[in-house]
Design a protein that fits this description.
heterodimer; A: about 200 residues; mainly alpha; two-stranded antiparallel ribbon; 2 strands; about 5% strand; B: about 200 residues; alpha+beta; 3 helices; 7 strands
Chain lengths: ~200, ~200
């Protein structure tokens, strides 16, 4: 496998930010109550991670080691503010449901972690591959968690106000505990266990 | 990579990064500012319209927090710019204001709608973090519908001597809404009195 492809798939499987690295769990736990939120969050993370990786990679030769973390934070915070203002201006209802978790992307360890561990040491092409792979890895994880939480927690599966299907019986008596913060821990814990169990032979 | 540079270089570098960031954000802010303000206003308008279907537009007084609502007689649209304006010499069709209650999961934001004679038209929940499936039922019309026409001294739960039936399993959330509305009415009474006199 070429290094580009390896860097791309790395974030999806081997170093999946949520299920393997356990990074950025705060927004993952908090906004994974509906598929709408998960899609919006994935889009925001993709944009910020991609742009941050590209910018850091482009200027990596000039970033002084001693102020590299403040530099990353300024870059990331700027990008996140752009996303926040953009969503408020052009996707109001999504920005309302994601609420404060958009500003919190600033301190999302996935993005700072990739800037520090990857983009600061690799060229732009590889950093782009890394950012897209990591975002897909994050997206798959948060979509899976939201799918379980929304389906069992509300008994229905709605995406942007379109009802895909509903579970009769569950809809009148949904397991709303899954929509609570503790429900997020249950779901992510069980999914983690599942992936470890399935992938244990490959990892070793 | 020759990154270990010393002296004033790190300071100059970081200052440059911040400068670029400031410029970028100034541009983005300039582009989105108006749209965001319009979106916020539209969101409030839609919420108000669920309480006052006859409302065409509203005027918000920043210093008092009072929304004065007007029907289409008072609203005129500038044909050239497409902007609508409200002629406040027409009588208002109602008033509204925001208040909040201390819920189980944090503050509950409540929009209170009043008739021109200051009786309650109804309330809407703007924001809350109550427990899904229990406290979150405060947003349901079954609960909210009780508030229409209540007098200030009835704004207590039935078990506290008022006229509001609590949601089963969500007494704290229900009480927070009733008491939040009551407290908001007290705070607003002076402002409402002034608004009424000014409007006559």
């Amino acid at each position: 496998m070429s290094s580009l492809a390896k860097n791309f798939t790395n974030g999806i499987v081997r170093s999946n930010p949520t299920f393997i690295l356990l990074l950025g769990l705060c927004p993952t736990l908090a906004v994974s109550t509906s598929l709408d939120n998960a899609i919006g969050m994935t889009g925001a993370v993709l944009f910020v991670l991609l742009a941050a990786n590209v910018i850091v990679s482009l200027i990596r030769r000039w970033i002084p080691n001693r102020v590299r973390i403040p530099t990353f934070i300024v870059i990331i915070a700027t990008l996140v503010t752009i996303v926040d203002l953009g969503l408020q201006g052009f996707a109001w209802s999504l920005s309302q449901s994601l609420g404060m978790y958009i500003p919190l992307i600033v301190v999302n360890c996935i993005i700072l972690g990739r800037a520090e561990a990857f983009a600061n040491r690799n060229n732009v092409r590889n950093s782009v591959a890394d950012a897209i792979g990591m975002s897909i890895g994050f997206g798959v994880a948060i979509l899976l968690i939201s799918l379980v939480r929304q389906l069992l927690g509300t008994g229905t599966l709605d995406v942007f106000n379109v009802r895909l299907f509903s579970v009769p019986g569950l809809i009148d008596n949904p397991a709303s505990i899954l929509l609570l913060p503790m429900g997020a821990f249950f779901v992510i814990g069980l999914l983690l266990a599942l992936f470890r169990w399935v992938g244990v032979s490959e990892c070793e | 990579m020759a990154k270990e540079r010393t002296g004033s270089y790190p300071i100059v570098f970081l200052t440059l990064v911040v400068l670029v960031s400031v410029i970028a954000l100034t541009v983005v802010n300039a582009v989105t500012e108006e749209r965001i303000a319009a979106n916020k206003r539209e969101a409030i308008k839609q919420m108000l319209a669920t309480l006052f279907p006859e409302m065409a537009d509203f005027v918000y007084a920043e210093e008092t927090g009072l929304y004065s609502l007007y029907d289409e007689r008072a609203v005129s649209v500038d044909e050239e710019t497409g902007e609508s304006s409200v002629d406040q010499s027409f009588p208002a069709v109602g008033y509204a204001f925001m208040t909040n209650g201390k819920g189980y999961g944090g503050e509950i934001g409540i929009l209170v709608g009043l008739e021109i004679d200051r009786t309650l038209r109804g309330i809407r929940i703007i924001a809350h973090q109550e427990t899904p499936g229990l406290g979150s039922k405060i947003t349901k019309t079954d609960f909210l519908g009780q508030f229409a026409g209540l007098a200030p001294d009835q704004l207590l739960l039935a078990r506290d001597g008022g006229a509001v039936d609590a949601i089963t399993g969500a007494t704290i959330s229900s009480r927070a809404v009733a008491e939040g509305v009551a407290a908001g009415l007290v705070d607003m009474s002076a402002i409402l009195g002034a608004a009424e006199e000014g409007g006559q």
